[in-house]
């Protein structure tokens, strides 16, 4: 099924003109051949070929018929469009001819238009002259109107006066506007001089209005009509200002008046000037308290008047209650800053902080039931900024600190005098010595901290920190006073008479202070005592204990001077006398509370052991025989046991006693074989690491039977085993200085023996 030569020649020009048509025809023929080969590839299918050819012939005929109909319809539409375009072109040409004719006609009548312009100008002048003629009677009566307006103002007929004043102003403004349009500035000056009385009338009316506004809080209660009249006049003027500003063509002199803004200014000046620009008042506590109370009462009262009465007398857009509230708030802010520039005492600073931070926002003032819910100062910010509050709190802390220092100094002076009185200090219900000092100090500090908590947590913390600093400084001064008392007592042991009793009272007071300090902390969950304050308490306690031990030492020293001696060795009652002295002091020590009593016993026992060993080592006695060594060991055993039993009986456990050193020293002296001394000394040194070579050498001298070789071995062994003091070890021997051995006398350039 190929194409004939005629078909190819007929298709050639079309294919050259429409290459897409050739491509589409090839695709269609290919698709048809593919479909036909797929349908008629079987012999039995060839029977339907004739039927298929007829059906396709009918469909092609139908398609060709529809195409012809469509092309015919399209050609008819194109013909109609061309006809319409031809008709439109003819009409346009006709219009152009008519416009040209009209143009020539207008050019011919131009001369006639100039005559019309002159006629128009004459007509405008006639209209202006007619308007001037109409207002001439009013212009001639202006001065008479001025007099009438002045009479109305004097009679306080403000509304009538203002109506006539507006009429005169309107007349003046109309004339000036006409002159302004014609550019006649010289004539404007003449008109302004003719209406010059208007300025005085305006000022007179304004003065009366501002006097009324200045008395508004009183008038709305007594005569609200006058105040309402003033507001109506102000609103009239405000509308005229708005209209003139909106036109923006000609602004008459004196406009805009801005009387509404002036109303706000006068009202604010009235509020601030009445109470906040008053003469300087007493800035101290009582005077300031009265001043703040008066402010509180008057502000609440006046805001109630504004809320209940003035709001009804002014338009809603005035927001008069909000304006007055903000004015009071800002005025108070400035007023408090002025007060703070004064040198206020602590009571004044406290009152100011309390009033600004608590009273101002309380139901007693700005949150008063009569003001809520219309009055709300939460959006106006605080009366005092956070920086100003912090600065004021610091000033308050400084004032309180000076007051606390003064009170503590007086308390210390009273306490110092009490020490020299001819009677014992007071006792509590358990018989422990005490004085009123801890209660006075702690009550003073606690009251100041509690008072500060009524203001802010930050102020409470500042006062707490200050209280600890002052307490620490007070303990330092108290310690110095105790040292001074001790010096006077050293000069005369009869002064003070009850020296030991007062020292015991000082210890009890110090313990009471130590136990009470934690209760000062604002946070109950945090009860730690600062390290520096605890150190001050410890120093105070150590000084009091030191003075007591010095007193004990003074009574023990005469007895210790008799150690060692032949009399003591033979069995005197020397240690018994020491026990009596110790027992006497222990009875005094029982007047302090238990932890202090145990500490005093331990320190006394250490002192006794130290003094006993000191006497034995510094005034060494050399045993000349084994019998003397045995006698010395027996005496050491008896003394140590007697002293140990005494302290055990007083309540000091053996594990807390230092007298075990005497038993250990006795073992060194009692050792029968000197060759074993190195091992014994090693054990002794391990137990008492503060023992020095000099101490051991002195002990070997006391034995009296140690050869130079054994001494050398012992000292060499100590050198090979240096000891370190363990943590918590209580030194016994380190405070005992043994005498330096005397060197043999040598001749110059000679050899020592």
TrEMBL record:
It is found in: Cytoplasmic vesicle, Secretory vesicle. Keywords: Cytoplasmic vesicle, Exocytosis. It comes from the Eukaryota. One of its GO terms (biological process) is exocytosis. GO terms for cellular component: exocyst; transport vesicle. The keyword Transmembrane helix does not apply. Pfam families: Sec6 (PF06046). Residues 1-25 are annotated as: Disordered. Its main location: cytoplasm. Gene3D superfamilies: 1.10.357.50, Exocyst complex component Sec6, C-terminal domain. One of its GO terms (molecular function) is SNARE binding. PANTHER family: EXOCYST COMPLEX COMPONENT 3-LIKE PROTEIN, EXOCYST COMPLEX COMPONENT SEC6-RELATED. Belongs to the SEC6 family. Interacts with EXOC2, EXOC4 and EXOC5; may be part of the exocyst. As part of the exocyst, may play a role in regulated exocytosis of insulin granules. This is Exocyst complex component 3-like protein. It comes from Aegithalos caudatus. The gene is Exoc3l1.
């Amino acid at each position: 099924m190929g194409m004939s030569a005629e078909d190819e020649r007929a298709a050639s020009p079309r294919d050259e003109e429409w290459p897409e048509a050739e491509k589409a025809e090839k695709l269609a023929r290919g698709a048809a051949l593919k479909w036909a080969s797929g349908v008629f590839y079987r012999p039995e299918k060839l029977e339907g070929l004739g039927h298929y050819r007829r059906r396709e012939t009918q469909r092609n005929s139908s398609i060709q018929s529809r195409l012809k109909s469509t092309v015919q319809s399209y050609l008819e539409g194109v013909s109609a469009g061309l006809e319409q375009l031809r008709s439109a072109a003819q009409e346009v040409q006709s219009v152009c001819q008519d416009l040209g004719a009209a143009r020539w006609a207008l050019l011919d009548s131009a001369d006639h238009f100039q005559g019309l312009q002159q006629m128009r100008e004459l007509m405008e002048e006639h209209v202006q002259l007619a308007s001037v003629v109409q207002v001439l009677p009013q212009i001639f009566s202006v001065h008479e109107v001025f007099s009438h307006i002045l009479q109305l103002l004097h009679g306080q007929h403000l509304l009538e006066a203002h109506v006539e004043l507006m009429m005169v102003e309107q007349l003046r403004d109309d004339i000036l506007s006409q002159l302004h349009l014609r550019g006649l500035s010289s004539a404007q000056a003449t008109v302004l001089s003719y209406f010059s009385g208007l300025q005085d009338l305006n000022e007179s009316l304004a003065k009366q209005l501002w006097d009324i506004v200045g008395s508004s809080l009183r008038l709305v209660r007594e005569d609200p009509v006058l105040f309402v009249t003033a507001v109506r006049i102000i609103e009239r003027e405000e509308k005229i200002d708005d209209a003139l500003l909106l036109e923006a063509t000609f602004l008459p002199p004196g406009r805009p008046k801005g009387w509404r803004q002036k109303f706000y200014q006068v009202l604010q000046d009235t509020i601030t000037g009445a109470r906040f620009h008053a003469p300087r008042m007493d800035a101290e506590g009582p005077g300031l308290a009265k001043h703040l109370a008066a402010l509180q009462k008057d502000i609440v009262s006046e805001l109630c008047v504004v809320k209940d009465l003035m709001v009804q007398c002014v338009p809603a857009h005035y927001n008069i209650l909000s304006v007055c509230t903000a004015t009071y708030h800002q005025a108070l802010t400035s007023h408090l800053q002025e007060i703070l520039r004064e040198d206020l005492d602590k009571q004044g600073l406290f009152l100011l902080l309390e009033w600004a931070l608590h009273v101002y926002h309380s139901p007693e003032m700005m949150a008063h039931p009569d003001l809520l819910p219309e009055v709300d100062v939460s959006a106006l910010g605080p009366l005092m900024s956070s920086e100003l509050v912090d600065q004021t709190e610091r000033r308050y802390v400084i004032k309180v600190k000076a007051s606390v220092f003064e009170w503590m100094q007086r308390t210390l002076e009273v306490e110092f005098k009490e020490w020299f009185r001819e009677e014992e200090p007071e006792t509590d219900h358990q018989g422990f010595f005490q004085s009123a000092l801890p209660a006075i100090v702690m009550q003073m500090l606690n009251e100041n901290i509690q008072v500060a908590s009524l203001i802010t947590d930050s102020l409470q913390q500042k006062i707490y920190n200050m209280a600890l600093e002052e307490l620490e400084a007070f303990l330092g001064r108290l310690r110095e006073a105790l040292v001074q008392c001790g010096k006077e007592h050293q000069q005369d042991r009869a002064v003070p008479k009850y020296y030991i009793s007062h020292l015991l009272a000082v210890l009890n007071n110090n313990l009471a202070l130590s136990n009470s300090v934690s209760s000062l902390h604002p946070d109950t969950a945090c009860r730690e005592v600062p390290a520096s304050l605890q150190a001050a308490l410890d120093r105070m306690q150590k000084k009091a204990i030191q003075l007591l031990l010095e007193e004990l030492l003074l009574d023990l020293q005469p007895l210790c001077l008799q150690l060692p001696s032949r009399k003591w060795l033979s069995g005197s009652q020397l240690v018994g006398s020491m026990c009596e002295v110790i027992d006497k002091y222990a009875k005094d020590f029982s007047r302090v509370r238990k932890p202090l009593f145990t500490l005093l016993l331990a320190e006394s026992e250490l002192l006794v052991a130290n003094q006993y060993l000191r006497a034995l080592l510094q005034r060494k006695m050399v045993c000349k025989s084994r019998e003397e060594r045995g006698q010395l060991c027996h005496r050491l055993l008896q003394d140590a046991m007697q002293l140990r039993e005494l302290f055990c009986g007083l309540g000091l456990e053996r594990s807390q006693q230092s007298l075990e050193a005497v038993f250990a020293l006795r073992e060194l002296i009692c050792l029968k074989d000197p060759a074993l001394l190195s091992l014994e000394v090693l054990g002794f040194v391990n137990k008492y690491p503060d023992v020095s070579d000099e101490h051991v050498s002195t002990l070997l001298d006391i034995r009296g039977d140690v050869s130079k070789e054994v001494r050398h071995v012992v000292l060499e062994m100590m050198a090979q085993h240096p000891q370190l003091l363990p943590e918590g070890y209580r030194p016994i021997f380190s405070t005992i200085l043994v005498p330096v051995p005397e060197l043999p006398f040598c001749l110059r350039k000679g050899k020592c023996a």
